[in-house]
Write a structure and sequence with these properties.
Blueprint: E1 2-10, E2 13-23, E3 36-46, E4 52-61, H1 70-94, H2 107-124, H3 130-139, H4 141-149
Antiparallel strand pairs: 1-2, 2-3, 3-4
Helix pairs in contact: 3-4
Length: 151
């Protein structure tokens, strides 16, 4: 079993992540391509209150310790949440997808495609903060059209 650890400070808390990687042998688990079983322990301490919480998470991966280190696995696992924060949170909160009451026919899928297109165009245009870009273009919609027609 191999081990990696990372500590981060920010947002008023201390977060410690510990990952254990355990090779899986053929007779242990009948799952095609699986090489490692991972255990992630996240401990957060809220600095102002001192409250401590611990979460455990488990995963299987086809990566092997011959090709990746536990530290790299820890980085990959953390990187997964960047996808959640960068795409799903923006769609849910900034673009109001969760509040949308359209639920029948092909309309939900069409609206999701429009939201994804808006996000892609804004990011390709160099806007890292989607909410700020939407506020800017809401104040002057012609600026948005002029800006994106040149792309």
């Amino acid at each position: 079993m191999q081990y990696a650890e990372a500590v981060n400070l920010g947002h008023g808390r201390i977060e410690q992540r510990r990952l254990w990687a355990l090779p899986i042998y053929d007779d242990f688990l009948d799952w095609p391509g699986v090489c490692l079983m991972l255990r992630l322990e996240r401990t957060r301490i809220h600095k102002p209150s001192g409250q401590k919480t611990t979460e455990l998470a488990y995963a299987l991966t086809s990566l092997s310790l011959d090709n990746v280190t536990p530290q790299q696995l820890l980085t990959l696992w953390r990187g997964h949440w960047q996808i959640e924060n960068r795409l799903h949170y923006v769609r849910d909160v900034t673009l109001g997808e969760d509040a949308c009451r359209v639920r029948s026919g092909h309309a939900p899928q069409a609206l999701a495609a429009i939201r994804n297109t808006v996000l892609a165009v804004l990011r390709l245009a160099g806007y890292p903060n989607i909410a700020e870009a939407l506020r800017t273009f809401a104040q002057n919609p012609y600026r948005a059209l002029g800006h994106f027609i040149l792309l």
